[in-house]
Amino acid sequence: MKRDDISNMGVDFAIAPAALDADPTPPAVDLIGFDSASFLINVGVGGITFSGTNKIEFVMTHSDDDATYTAVTDDDVVGVTVASGGIVHSLTAAHAAATSTKVGYIGGKRYVKVLPDFSGTHGTATPMSIPVVKTRAHQRPVA
User: What predicted TM-score, i.e. pTM, was given to this entire model?
Assistant: First the structure.
């Protein structure tokens, strides 16, 4: 029996497409019914020239109860090395072209959040989005 991929995955947003210049309030991505998820950190051309002071760090946290969140570690993700505090991606230098960074979540928690954490001065917004592809569905087809 052949199956299409659409019937086997769910799609959500950790951050909906927007031009941001300050920390948003990230929604919780609920992974119930799925065994894994891929977060795609898409960032357009930087609104500013990033530096060690004027930067964006993408912080991933997870939770069993959607109330108490802890930072992910290297054991919870694949595709990137996690820095202190759950940082899975950083913009600390000029960002002249759009990029996409894949972060595979393999941790065992039900809820996951990704916060674009802005530091310094951001007078011009930076476009970004973080879609989530949830895979290995327990029940198929996925609506």
Answer: 0.93
